[in-house]
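[Automated response] Your request has been received and processed.

Submitted sequence:
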Amino acid sequence: MPYIKKEERTSSDLITELVTTINTKGDLNYVVCELVGRLCLRDGGLSYTSTSNWIDAVHGAERELTRRLLGPYETMKEIENGDVESFVELLTTMT
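Generated structure:
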């Protein structure tokens, strides 16, 4: 979860440098992979626990980005263009 205390957050200078450096989806993919790899190395090398923990953090970030950014966008488009017909039918069976 990205909601950590302000004093514990990564330097905005570091984030600004990354934002100016990352230009493509491939760049971002590389940075995330390299970051996880280096964190594993820092933790003593390849182990299931360390690697799994860092990958879980990446998945958590993905879920939060989807929830906070894509979710509201998709809801806006659903209202604008109409729902998926089979979703409406399936959701009515839940009530």
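Summary generated for your ticket: The chain has four helices and no strands. The helical segments are 12-21, 25-42, 48-81, 85-92.
If you did not submit this request, please reply to this message.
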